[in-house]
Amino acid sequence: MKCKSLLIFSFLLMPLWLFAQQRITVSGVVTEQATGEPAIGVSILVKGTTTGTVTGIDGSYTLSDVPAQATLVFSYIGMTTVEQAVNGRSRIDVRMSEDQQVLDEVVVIGYGSAKKRDLTGSIVSIKAAEFADRPSTNPLASIQGKLAGVQVVNAGQAGQDPEIRIRGTNSINGYAPLYVVDGLFSDNINYLNPADIESMEVLKDPSSLAIFGVRGANGVIIVNTKRAKSGQTVVNINSSFGFRNVADRMSMTNAAQFRELYDEQRVNQGLGAYDYAKWNADTDWQDVIFRQGFMTNHNVSITGASEKNRFYLGLGYTSEEGNILHEKYSKVTANLNSDYQVTDFLRFGFQVNGSRTWPSDAKGVSGAIRAAPIAPVYHEKTGLLHTLPDFQRAQVWNPMIDVETRAGHAVGVNNRVAGNIYGEVDLLKNLKFKTTFSLDYAVGEVRRFSPIIYVYNPDVAGKENLTDRESVSQNKSTRTVAQSDYILTYDLSSGGHSLTAMAGLTTNYTEYSLLEGAREQHLNDIIFSIPDNDKDKWWISSIDAKASSNGGAQHRRFTMSYLLRALYSYQNRYLLNVSYRRDGASVFRSVGNTWENFYSLGAGWVVSEEAFMKNQSMIDYLKLKGSWGVLGSQNTGGFHYPTYPRLENSGSAVFGDNIIAGYSLKYLPRNLSWEKTHAWEAGLEIAFFGNRLRIEPVYYNKVTKDIIVLLSGFSGAKNSLENLGEIRNRGVELSASWSDKIGESGLKYTVSGNLTTIDNQVLSLGRGPEDAIFEGPKGISRSMEGYPVAHFYGYQVIGVYQNKEDVKRYYPNKVGSPAPGDLKFKDVNGDGVITQDDRTMIGNPTPDLTYGFNVNLEYRNFDLGVDMMGVYGNEIYRTWDDPTYAQLNYLTSRMNRWHGEGTSNWEPILNPSRALNLLNSNYFIEDGSFFRIRNVQLGYKLHPALLSKLHLKSLRLYANIQNLKTWRRNTGYTPEMKGSALESGIDRGTYPMPVIYTFGFNLTF
C-alpha cells in the first residue's frame, strides 16, 4: 500500500519536476525609469551561474538556455540592481532606476550631516576600505594622492605623522588643518586606530568651512569612528604582518674614490699628503646602519545591538621596527562606544578612544652619509667603536654611536584618552536638540640618558672618551581640551521645498603645561655611575643636583561661539547654503578684539533636473556650484599670549656696587586680531553614460589677510607685532572616475584620477620688500612680497670658471674672489657686476601640480587595487653635504668635478676654502618632482558556500606592497621633505622612504 501511494505521489510531481528542468530562451528590453530611454550595457546574469549577456544599443537582450525557474539579475553601475524570477516566461522587460544610495550619499559637515547632492561646496568622503588595511600607523598617510587639493608629505620613520596642506600654505604662521574626531576639535589623529575609523570627510571650500570659525581657514578633516549597526553580534579580526626595506641608497664614494678626491682636495688647499696607514678600511656606512624592519598589526572588534542598545568595542596593537638598527614604535588602542534609545524621542550615548604609544627612539641618517668610508666600524681587538679620521672626528662621529651605543636611550610613553557623552531629544516632529560634552586628555613623558662615550682612537693609548659627562633629562607635558556643544536642528520637507536649519552654542577650553629638568655629572665626580643597560635608573634623582637645569611652559585658551546654518533646496534643483559663526576668544581680549564674525554663502543649480535635460541621454547628472566666505585662523604669530609680549634682556646698569639687569618688551603689539581668509570657488559636478563617468572640476581662490607679522624696528624703534601680511593661493582641482563592467565576464573596474594646481604668492608682509623673512640654513628660505612663501633665494649658477682668462673676461665679482674651478654666477640685474643684488628666486618648494591615479579591479572573488601619485614643479635644496665646518664623504657626482680646463662646467673644484662655492646658489638645488607607485594590493574573498561550511560571515586574504617604486631626480633618499610654513623642501639628510610588504587577513563571524 505504501509503495502504491509513493508511486501515485511521484506521478503527480513529475510535471513540476519536468517544468523545473525545462530550458527556455528569454528576451526583453531594459529601459531607464526616469527617461524611458533604452539602458545600454546592462548586465543580465542567471543568478548563481556565470551564464549571461548584456543589452544592446536599443536596450534589448536575448538569453538562451535559461532554466524555467531561474532568477535573472539585472545590474548596471549607478543603477539599482533588479532581480526577476523567470517562472517560465520567455519575455521579461525591466525598468531600472538610478541608485538612490549613490545620489543620496550622506556626508558629515560639522555639527550635523547632509546629502552630498544638497551641498554647494567641495567635500570629499574617504571610506574605511581606503586605509584600514594599509601599513600606516596614521590613517592620513594612506590618503596620499587620493584627493584633489590635499597635499600629503609622508615620512619614512616608524610612527611618524604625515604633513598635510589643504589648498596650499595660507599663512606664515601655520598651515595645519583642523581635525574633528566625533565632534571633538583635535590637533591630530595619530592616537586613533585606522581600523576603528568608519570614514573621513575632507572639507575644502568656504561654504563648508565657515561654520568652524577661527579654526576653518586651513581646511578641516572630519573623522567618524565606527559605531554599532542594528543586527546581531558580529566579531571582526583584522591582522597583518610584514617587513620594510630601504630600496634606494644614496650614491656615495667608496674608500678608493674618497682617497682620490681627498688627495686632490688637499693639493688644491696647499696641504701635504694624508697618511692613510691607519685608515685602510672600505666601509659602506649605509649597509652598516640599515636593516630590514619587521612590523605587525592586530585588531579585534565586537559589535552588538538589541532593540534599544547598540555597542562597539575595538582593540588594536601595532608594532613597527624602523630601518635603522634598534628603532621600534609600538601602540595599543581601544575604542568603546554605546548608543541607548530610551524612548522614541530620547537618546543617550558615549564614545571613548584611548591609546598608549611608545614612540621610536629615532636616529638620523646624516652620519652615515657624512662619515668617511676609510674608517672601520669597530676595533677588532678591543671591540670598541672606531673613531673617525682627525679631519672630521670633531664634527662627525662614528654613526654607530647614535645607532648602537645610544640606542634606546630615549624612553618615552604617550597616553591619550578622548571621548564624549551626548543626549538627544526630539522636541517636535522636525525639531531636535543635542547636547555633547567632550574631553581630550593627553600626557607625554620622556626620559633620556646620555652616557659617556668611549671609542678606539689609533692616535691615543687605550680607549678615548668623546664625552666627559653623563646626564639624565626628564620632561612631562599635559594637554587638556574640554568642549561642549548645544545644537538645535530643524528639518522640513514640503511641496518641493527642503530645509535643514541649525543653531547652536559651543565652547572650547584648552590648557597645556610642560615641565622639564636635567642633571649631569662630570667624569671625575662620578662615584656611582648610572647603568647603561638599566632603564629603571634613568631618572634625574639618580644624579646629585650640583649641576642641574630646569624649564617649563604653559598656556590656556578659551573660546565661545554662536552658530547658524541653513541648507535649502527647491525640487532638488536649486540649492542655497548659508552659514554664520561668531567666535569670542580670550587671546585678543585685552585689546578689545574678543569677537569676530565668519560667514559664507553657497549656491548650486542641478541642471540635470530641468525639463530641457530630460530628452537627452548622455548627461545623467549636472550640478553647477559656487561658494564664497570669510574663514578664520587661530594663528597668533607663534605667541600664545600675543598681546602680552615677553621681556628680554636689554643690557645692565651699575649703581654703586650693584649691577641691575635691564629688560624691555620683545615687541609692541598693535591692535591685534584674528587672521582671516577670504575665499571663493566655482565648479561643477557631472556624470555621463549611466553614471559611469564622473568629473568634478573646481577653481579656487583664497586670500588670507591680516596675517600677524613681527616687523623689525627702524632707527632704534621697537619691533612691532601687527596684522599686515597677505598671502594668496589659487588653482584648479580636477577629479574624475570611470566605473564599469566588462560584459558578462564578471570583471568590474574603476579608474579614477585627480590633479591640483597651486599658485602661491605673498602679497604683503608689511611695509614692502624690506620686510622679507629669511629662514633655514644660511637664510636659504625667503618669504617676500611678490614671490611664493618660503621660496629658495640665492645665486644662479651658469657654469664654472675654466681658466684665469675666463675670470678676467667675466663680470667683476664683489661677493668673493673667484679663481679657476669656482662657480660662475649670473648677473641677474644686468649692472655688469656680481653683487648680493644678483641673488634671486632659485627654486620653489611648493609644487606646481600634484596628482594621483587609482585603478581597482574585481573579478569573481579576487580584487586588485593600484594607487599611484606624484608631484611636479617643485625644488629641493640640499644642505647635508655642506663642508663648511667639517670634511665629509662625497657624492659620486663629485667624481666629475672640475680639475682642469674643460673637465666640468657644473661641479666646482674640490676646495672647501673657496667660500664662493658654498654660498646659497642653485648648485644645491635639485628637482623635487617624482612619480610613485604608492600602493598595490591583491585580495581574495572566500566563496560564500565555503564560508557557510566554516560558519563564517566573511574572510578576505590580502597581500600589500607600499612604495613599490619611485621615479625621482634628487640625490637624497626621498623627494618628500617635511618643513614649516616658512621653510620646507630642505634636505638635511632626510630619512629614507621604505618599501613595505605586508600580508594579512580580515575575518568576520
Question: How does this model look, in words?
Answer:
The chain is mainly β and 1005 residues long. 7% of the residues lie in helices and 48% in strands. The protein has a 22-stranded antiparallel beta barrel. A 5-stranded mixed sheet has the order 10-15-16-13-14, with no helix packed on it. The protein is globular and about 100 Å long. The model is unreliable at 1-20 (pLDDT under 50).
Present the secondary structure layout.
Elements: H1 2-21, E1 23-32, E2 43-46, E3 52-54, E4 60-67, E5 71-75, E6 82-85, E7 94-96, H2 100-103, E8 106-108, E9 113-115, E10 123-127, E11 150-153, E12 163-166, E13 178-181, E14 184-186, E15 197-203, H3 206-209, E16 220-225, E17 234-245, H4 255-268, H5 285-289, E18 293-305, E19 309-321, E20 328-341, E21 346-358, H6 366-370, H7 399-405, E22 410-426, E23 431-450, E24 454-456, E25 463-465, E26 469-494, E27 497-522, E28 548-570, E29 574-585, E30 595-606, E31 619-633, E32 647-655, E33 658-665, E34 668-669, E35 675-688, E36 693-711, E37 720-742, E38 747-757, E39 759-765, E40 773-775, E41 781-783, E42 791-794, E43 797-800, H8 804-809, E44 823-825, E45 840-843, E46 849-859, E47 862-872, E48 875-878, E49 925-927, E50 930-941, H9 944-950, E51 954-968, E52 986-987, E53 995-1004
Parallel strand pairs: 1-7, 13-16, 34-37, 48-52
Antiparallel strand pairs: 1-4, 2-3, 2-5, 5-6, 8-9, 10-15, 11-12, 13-14, 15-16, 17-18, 17-53, 18-19, 19-20, 20-21, 21-22, 22-23, 23-26, 24-25, 26-27, 27-28, 28-29, 29-30, 30-31, 31-35, 32-33, 35-36, 36-37, 37-38, 37-39, 38-46, 40-41, 41-42, 42-45, 43-44, 46-47, 47-50, 48-49, 50-51, 51-53
